[in-house]
Amino acid sequence: MTTSTITTRWRTVDIVVASVIAVAFGVIFWAWNVVWSATEGAFAFFPPAQAAIYGIWLVPGVLGGLVIRKPGAALYCEFVAAVVSVLLGSQWGTIAIIQGLAQGVAAEAAFAAVRYRSFRLPVAVGSGLLAGLAAAVFDQIRYYSEFDVASFRVPVFLITVLSSAVVAGAGGWALTRSLAQTGVLDRFPAGRERTAV
Predict the structure, then answer these.
(1) Rg, C-alpha atoms of the chain
(2) Who has greater pLDDT, 191 or 132?
(3) CA 19/CA 165 separation, integer angstroms
(4) 12, 38, 51, 87: which could form a disulfide with 159 (CB 3.0–4.6 Å)?
(5) Which has the closest alpha carbon to 127: 185, 180, 171, 184?
(6) CA distance 102 to 132
């Protein structure tokens, strides 16, 4: 894509699709909150390992950035998804909105770093990784400050970031490719690339 064809202006379809992604993932977040609580016992052998399933909470930022390809898309999708999950009832309360904002800004940063000109796997993984870093730092300050550094805080930090890079980053990229193959993204550059992928 050349510089002259890059547009930062959002179309109505961009707003609608970004909102659909955000609301759908807001519902998924709400359900994932339940899964998170229900699986705590399964990770009793090593509690930081639960962070392996963390990345789901960061998918909409990466997916929004890959599909919409406009400044603010990753931030919008992650933030609105967090708001929807809180409105549906989150055990973490309204603090999840602030965390969603931080994660959205971080997910957005990867796309901004390449000036919204590349939407390949490394950029998607970078977006997931940065969102995971934001999430991990937030959690360290908000939830884990009282825990032991070596046995809990360092492992949960690393596992959160890795999960985010793999699940949100690579997973968001794979989900975008899968959606493109169905034709539902034909109004977006991501959909028009399906024959090339």
Answers:
(1) 17
(2) 132
(3) 23
(4) 51
(5) 171
(6) 10
